[in-house]
Every structure is written in structure tokens, then in C-alpha cells.
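WARN no homologs supplied; continuing
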Amino acid sequence: VQLQASGGGLVQAGGSLRLSCAASKRTFSNNAVGWFRQAPGKDREFVAAISWSGGSTYYSDSVKGRFTVARDTAKNTVHLQMNILKPEDTAVYYCAAARTSVAGPKSRDYAYWGQGTLVTVSS
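OK structure emitted
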């Protein structure tokens, strides 16, 4: 099982990026998907999650109102739209598929992890 995260890059503060997480249909068929990030020297932290149906979404307080997670079922892809980016959003972003159809911020609930994509926000 593999997850492929993409879309990272360098952006100025206030700008936007859209990350994508692609996986096999089997991986995403009944699983919630989450996004996590890890900044240099810091622990990995939860960013956002979306249920299998797409009907439920969860966000960390630090990104609420700026980031939006959505899934494209037909393409087996989950996107993370990031707006009004701040330098503190700089991190490697990982997508992960949970063991259940609904999942929240606990990383232990996620069974499959992608390789990460780097987001750098300049001030």
C-alpha cells in the first residue's frame, strides 16, 4: 500500500498551495484520510482529516479557516487546499490513511503513510 503526496513548494506568506494525496482505490475505499506536518526540530502534528464519505472534516486550530480538506472519490485523491499561508506553516506535510472510516487527530489511528512533501513559506 502506498500513498503519494505532492504539491509542495516555495510560496510567499499570504499565498496558497494545494497538496494532493493519491492512493490505490483499495487504500481509500473505506478509510478516513488525514494530513499531518512536521517542522524542523518539532514533533509531527495533526493538520486536517476527512472521513471516508467526505461528510466530516476536522482541522487543527492553527489551520482552521485557512485550510480545506476534500476528497475526489473518482480519482482516489484527497486534496489539502492551503490559503493565507504563514511562515509557521513551513513543514513536511504527510498524508495518511486511517484504519477506520472516520478518524481524528491521533496519528496512531492511521495505518498507511505517504513520503511527505515539503512546504516552505517565506516571510
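The mean pLDDT is 93.
OK
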